[in-house]
Amino acid sequence: MAEPTIVAAGRPKLRWNVALAVGAGLLAVTAATAVIASFTLVGAAEGLSPDTNRPMSADHWLGTDAFGRDLLARALVGAQSSLVMALAATALSMVAGVLIGTAVWVVPRRVREAALRMVEIAVSYPELLVAVVLAAILGAGRWQLVLAVGLANIPATARLTANLGAALHQRDFITTARLTGVPGWAMIGRHLLPNMAEPLLIQLAATFSTGLVAMSALSFVGLGVQIPDYDLGSLLAAALPAIYSRPVEVVGPALMIVLLSVAAMLVGDGLAASADPRLRSAQARSALVDTSTRAAEPTPDAVVGVRDLVVRRGDGAPLVRGVSFDIGRAEILGVVGESGSGKSLTAMALARLLPDGLTAEATHLQVAGMDMRQNPPRRDLATGLGLIYQDPGTTFNPALRMATQLTEVLRVHRGRSKAEARKIIADLLASVHIVDPARLLRSHPYQLSGGMRQRAMIAAALAGEPALLVADEPTTALDVTVQAEILRELARINTEDGTAMLFISHDLGVIGQLCHRVLVMKDGVVVEELTAEALRAGEVAEPYTRMLLDAVPKLDRSRAVR
Amino acid sequence: MTRSFLARRLGGLAGTVVVAVVLTFVIVPLIPGDPAVSAAGPDATIEQIERARTELGLDRPLAERFVDYVGGLLQGDMGHSFSLNAPVTDVVFGRLPFTAGLAFASLAVVLLVAVPLGMAVGVLTRGGRRRWLDSAFGYTTAVVAAIPPYVMATFLVLVFAVSLQVLPPAYSRSRVGISLVLPLMALAIPSICFIARVVRRETAVVLEQDYLRTARGWRLGALRTYGRYALPNLLTSTLTLSGIILIGMLGGAITVETVFSWPGLGLGIVNAVTAKDYPLIQGIVLVLAVLAAALTLAVDIVLGLVDPRVRHG
After folding, report:
1. Rounded CA gap, B222 and B216, in Å?
2. B21-53 residues labelled b (16+ CB within 10 A) or e (exposed)
3. What is the Rg, in whole angstroms, of the alpha carbon atoms belonging to chain A?
């Protein structure tokens, strides 16, 4: 879900980028040229001369029209006229739109809802149609055109501002201001507007662009400025009837419209990109790779064998710095550490599912007989290891029914028919204690509880009868009772089917309950390896592990020590 | 589809239609000066002005005229066009198929081209891959999307009608199909670029979602992963935008139809405003407004079908 960009407090800093620089440069140069032309070239643009219908030449770069007027000069002076009108219309749309959009947040709720409703309806009409109707009411002419287009663009800005206000409305500082009785105008000026500056600036560029285009459109169809007055739209319209005999006449006005509209749009895009925090470059953090591996030769019959695993960011900075471990048959290996310790990346590297931009290397990386440094066949990957993720709320596709998603591996990789796959999954769901599997299969993810979704995830992971289950914080997003149930399911699967597991968690209590062996990770390296018994007895050597152990709440600890 | 969802949306449509009826009615009373003088034209005699006054009903009280206006609409009577000397209803419904056909054909072309294009670029440039493609696509589409339809139309006429002489520059009654090509391109090309940009951005967002990692974990292959797990989640935003685009096309039709003498409602309203034919303006605006509202409703319903969260939200 795209949330509107909100900068909480302080002035947003403008970050230049290519689009912004090119757009602003283009706009500035074109506008400056047009303004200078409007002072120096009016004679050439409007004075009649006997040099009619001349082709392009050194004197007349774009030739002359049927009255001997210089076409380039007309295009430039017309551009100045369009620019001035567009600026006036933009000012009108923005001021009125922002006023309406912010005012709705300081008036009583009932008035606000009615006003928002009207704005919604107003935006649903094509803005050019509204401008045409307004032009019909106001008549043709220069100021009528400004008024028509300016008024037609108000609803769009009002809606954007109202939406931005809605996001701010929920925030603490606005609530505080409201409760302390800050008056309406001060609320708008001091609290709402400064926090909308960035999106409104983007909207300003967009409004200018659409305003210029709409105005030229009205003049183009003959409802805007009237002869002898002219702007870019009317110049283009005047050139059109002669397009077969003198095609060059359309070049000037067409080019100026495109130039100005593109420049304004680039400025808008550039501002949007500069406001997007995702595009801000992250600081590179340098760290050394731990090459002093003490791990022995890989155990031949292990389900998983990892030696010297390094995961790097795109800029080469290592996030996992030389990790080695084995997982034996029917063994549950726990990996524990704080967020950022590299435990999830280790698991994802093992499953060949690293996020984009990250790369893994290792001297040995083997899962269920597959060399994961090569590119194992998809079928082997899908059935060899099953995956369970942290937040069951986001791991299923919200647009698809559970049946479609859960049966995917069976249908694609095991060649099962839809009905067969459904039957197998229903049995698996029953085995993880889903009461009504048929109903779950008919549901969409949002209709299920977190616990049900996580059970479904486990069923999906088991569908391929994998040799290894990778569970990345599978209980973190669940409440405590559900957590215990899920852990019980995993322990049962391990004892009944002998499935090996890599279990990632930041919770030592959970790890101690379920796992046979535990790796403690910090800053991308393994700092300690323990048996579950040692962990439960509190026999740890590393101060970091001791710290993690002390961080476990007493209640959990007593359960873990049991 | 739940009944309350439909009821809510239909209620919204009814509201929009009522507002459109009121707004089209107030066009005439809002005209500054004497509408009868403007309607009768600059060289009109006193009798002609008075006749226009009677025809527009300006000699009667506002409330009575409104009741008449609504009553007429309910019977399918939108008044009489003076410039064409014909019932407005006949003129409007004679022109409607041309605009609707042009807009829907353009939208179909836009979606068929823009969605695969945007997705392909989104997938190819995911996680910072192929920066050159990202920039090339970004700048080309930004520039083309910023070209207004009437400039695009002029350019297309210059290339395909004047230089290459392969397509007709204007509507021709005997060759409707072939004369549709240029107006369609003029409307579609800028929108293709706009929608493709949105789809590309949405693709990048969807590719980062947890559920896509889940699908990747099932190793389904590119086609199935993107087609089944990314596409439906792109459709919500794409469809929402298509509604906006289609409504924008009704506006774009005003200029594009003028360039190509395309006998639709867009050209119709331009002629009506030029002729100050107020009943015809009211009729066309009302039909376009209702059409826009109906399209918004259609998009909402399709969204409800595609994305179950919309119906319950």
Report:
1. 9
2. bebbbebbeebeeebbbbbbeeebeeeebebbb
3. 34
Closest CB to A129 among B210, B254, B308: B254
- Average pLDDT on A203-207 reads 90
Domain covering B89-311: architecture = Orthogonal Bundle (1.10)
Task: For chain A, list the domains and their CATH numbers.
Answer: 20-276 (1.10.3720.10), 304-551 (3.40.50.300)
* Predicted pLDDT of residue A560: 44
CB A104 within 8 A of CB A234: no
Task: Give the tokens for residue A266.
Answer: 């680039």
Angle between helices A71-103 and A154-169 (to 10 degrees): 40
Report the candidate in A22, A67, A476 with the shortest Cα–Cα distance to residue B135.
A22
Query: Alpha-carbon distance A164 to A175, whole Å?
Result: 15
Both structure tokens of A438: 């048929």
What is the per-residue pLDDT across A426-484, written as a single tens digit (0 to 9) for each?
988 988 888 899 999 999 888 898 888 888 888 888 888 888 999 888 887 777 888 88
- Residue B183 corresponds to which tokens in the numbers above? 């107006």
Which residues on adjacent β-strands are paired with residue A367?
A304, A370
Residue with tokens 């969802």: B5
Q: In whole angstroms, what is the distance from residue B238 CA to residue A36 CA? A: 43
In this structure, what is the dihedral angle of CA atoms B155, B160, B163, B168, given to the nearest 10 degrees?
A: -110
Binary contact (A243, B221; C-beta < 8 A): no
Which residue type does A314 have? Answer: G
Q: Do A128 and B158 touch (CB under 8 A)?
A: no
Contacts of A381 in chain B (CB under 8 A): 219
Contacts of A129 in chain B (CB under 8 A): 250-251, 254, 269, 285, 288-289, 292
Tokens of A29: 């140069």
Q: How confident is the model at residue A145 (pLDDT cuts 50, 70, 90)?
A: very high
* pLDDT attached to residue A280: 42
Residues in chain A: 562
Give the residue among A514, A523, A524 at the shortest CA–CA distance from A562.
A514
- The residue extents of the domains of chain B are 89-311
**pLDDT (tens digit per residue) in A228-240:** 899 999 999 998 8
The kind and range of the H/E element at B230 are none
- The size of chain B, in residues, is 313
CA of B303: which chain A residue's CA is closest? A399
Contact B44, B52 (CB under 8 A): yes
Give the number of other Cβ atoms within 10 Å of residue B130's Cβ.
Answer: 13
CA angle at residue B31 from B28 to B34, to 5 degrees?
A: 95
Instruction: Compute φ and ψ for A326, nearest 5 degrees.
Output: -125, 155
